[in-house]
C-alpha cells in the first residue's frame, strides 16, 4: 500500500482538498434513527456532519479531563496542607492519607487516556501527549526536579517535560509517596496545578472548533478544506491510536520482559489504562445500538461504511473489533500468551483499518508518531 509522509495539520489543509471525490463529499440527508440499521439503509452523512460529531465528542472528553485534573490538583493540595501528627516523620505517608489523591490521579488519568487515545486537533498542536504524559517515567529526573524546589512558574518552566505530567505524579504517589511538609509534596502540587491549567487550555481550544452551523460551513470553500483535513486527520490518528495500543503499550513492553516498561506500572493500573484507550478506539470504530447515531453525535466508521453501502466491509470491521473485545480483557503484564493474543487481534484490526477501511473512506494513510520499532 502506498503511504505518504505524515504532515503537520496546518500543512494538510490544502492537501486534504485534493482528497475530494464523489465518494467523500456525500449528499446531506436528515439523520433519523433506523429500526434495523444493519439491514435498512442508514442516513448519508456529509463530512461536515461527521467532523461536527467528532468535535462535539472531543469537547465532552476535554471537559471531563479538565474537571478531573482540577480535582486531582485539589486532592494533592489538601493532602500536602494536612497537619502532620507529632509522632509522624515528615517523609512518612500512610496509605490512608494517600487514598484520596491516588483515587483522583486514577480518575484523571483514565479521563486523559480516553481523550488522548486518538490524538486530534489541540492535542497535536500543543504536543500534549509529550507534555502531559511523557513515557517512560524518568525517576532520576523527577528526583532532581524535586531537589531543585521550583518556587514559581518561571522556575517550573525550566524543568523538563520528562519530570512532569501524569507519570511524575504517579511516581510521587506510589513509588516515592508524598507526605505533608516535604519537597515532594510541594512539587507534586506545583505540577498538578500545571496539569490542570494545561487541561483547561485543551478544553478551551477544543471549544473553538465547535461548528454550530454545519450547513453554512459546507458552503464555504475554505471551511470545506478544513473539514476534509480534520476528517483525514481523524482516520489517520485512529489508525495511529490502534498501533500505539498494540505495540507501544502492550507488545513492546511485553517483549522487553521488564515489568516497569508497562504503562502505569507503579499504580498497578496497566490493564485499566489499556481498557480506557480501547474504549475510545472502539467507540470510534463501531456502533452497538440498533438505531443510527443521534443527530449531532459521533458517527463511527462502521456506520460510515454502511451509509456508503459497504456492509460486507462494515461487517468485517465489526468482527475485527469483537476479536479485540474477546482478547484484550485477558491480557496482563507477565501473561505473555494472553498479551500476544491481544496484540494479534489489534494488528488484524489495524491492518484492516489502514488497508481497506481508510481506502473505502477515501483517506490516504500517512506516517504518524505511532509508527516505529
SSE blueprint and pairings:
Blueprint lengths: L8 H9 L29 H34 L14 H22 L5 H4 L2 H5 L6 H10 L4 H5 L7 H11 L7 H25 L6 H4 L3 H36 L13 H16 L15 H7 L3 H17 L8 H25 L13
Helix pairs in contact: 1-11, 2-3, 2-9, 2-11, 3-8, 3-12, 6-9, 8-9, 11-12, 11-15, 13-14, 14-15
At a glance:
Its main location: other. The protein has about 375 residues and is mainly alpha-helical.
Please indicate the count of domains.
Answer: 2
Residue runs with pLDDT of under 50 for 5 or more positions: 1-35, 85-91
The shape, in one word, is: globular
SSE pattern: HHHHHHHHHHHHHHH
Structure commentary:
- This is Imelysin family protein.
- InterPro entries: Imelysin-like, Imelysin_sf.
- This protein folds into 2 domains: 202 residues, no CATH class; 158 residues, M75 peptidase, HXXE motif (A middle domain of Talin 1), CATH 1.20.1420.
- It has 373 residues and is mainly α.
- Helix 3 runs parallel beside helix 12 and helix 6 packs across helix 9.
- It is globular and about 65 Å long.
- It contains 15 helices and no strands.
- The N terminus is likely disordered.
Task: Record keyword descriptors for this entry.
A middle domain of Talin 1; 62% helix; 373 residues; 2 domains; disordered N terminus; globular; 15 helices; Imelysin_sf; 0% strand; mainly alpha
Amino acid at each position: 500500500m502506498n503511504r505518504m509522509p505524515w504532515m503537520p495539520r496546518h500543512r494538510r489543509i490544502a492537501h486534504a482538498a485534493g482528497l475530494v471525490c464523489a465518494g467523500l463529499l456525500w449528499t446531506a440527508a436528515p439523520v433519523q434513527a433506523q429500526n434495523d440499521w444493519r439491514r435498512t439503509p442508514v442516513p448519508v452523512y456529509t463530512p461536515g456532519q461527521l467532523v461536527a460529531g467528532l468535535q462535539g465528542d472531543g469537547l465532552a472528553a476535554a471537559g471531563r479531563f479538565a474537571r478531573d485534573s482540577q480535582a486531582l490538583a485539589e486532592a494533592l493540595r489538601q493532602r500536602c496542607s494536612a497537619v502532620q501528627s507529632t509522632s509522624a516523620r515528615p517523609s512518612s505517608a500512610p496509605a490512608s492519607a494517600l487514598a484520596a489523591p491516588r483515587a483522583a490521579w486514577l480518575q484523571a488519568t483514565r479521563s486523559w487516556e480516553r481523550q488522548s487515545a486518538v490524538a486530534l486537533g489541540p492535542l497535536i498542536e500543543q504536543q500534549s501527549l509529550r507534555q502531559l504524559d511523557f513515557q517512560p517515567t524518568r525517576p532520576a529526573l523527577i528526583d532532581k526536579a524535586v531537589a531543585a524546589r521550583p518556587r514559581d512558574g518561571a522556575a517550573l518552566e525550566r524543568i523538563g517535560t520528562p519530570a512532569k505530567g501524569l507519570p511524575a505524579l504517579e511516581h510521587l504517589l506510589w513509588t516515592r509517596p508524598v507526605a505533608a511538609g516535604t519537597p515532594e509534596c510541594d512539587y507534586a502540587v506545583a505540577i498538578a496545578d500545571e496539569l490542570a491549567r494545561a487541561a483547561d487550555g485543551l478544553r478551551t481550544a477544543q471549544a473553538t472548533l465547535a461548528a454550530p452551523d454545519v450547513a453554512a460551513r459546507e458552503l464555504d470553500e475554505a471551511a470545506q478544506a478544513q473539514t476534509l483535513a480534520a476528517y483525514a486527520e481523524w482516520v489517520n490518528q485512529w489508525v495511529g491510536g490502534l498501533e500505539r495500543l498494540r505495540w507501544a503499550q502492550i507488545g513492546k513492553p511485553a517483549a522487553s520482559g521488564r515489568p516497569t516498561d508497562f504503562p502505569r506500572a507503579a499504580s498497578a493500573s496497566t490493564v485499566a489504562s489499556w481498557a480506557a484507550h480501547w474504549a475510545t478506539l472502539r467507540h470510534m470504530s463501531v456502533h452497538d445500538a440498533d438505531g443510527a447515531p443521534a443527530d449531532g453525535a459521533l458517527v463511527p466508521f462502521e456506520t460510515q461504511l454502511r451509509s456508503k453501502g459497504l456492509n460486507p466491509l462494515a461487517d468485517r470491521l465489526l468482527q475485527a473489533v469483537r476479536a479485540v473485545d474477546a482478547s484484550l480483557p485477558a491480557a496482563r503484564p507477565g501473561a505473555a500468551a494472553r498479551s500476544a493474543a491481544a496484540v494479534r487481534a489489534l494488528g488484524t484490526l489495524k491492518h484492516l483499518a489502514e488497508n481497506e477501511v481508510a481506502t473505502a473512506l477515501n483517506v490516504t494513510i500517512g506516517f504518524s508518531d505511532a509508527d516505529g520499532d
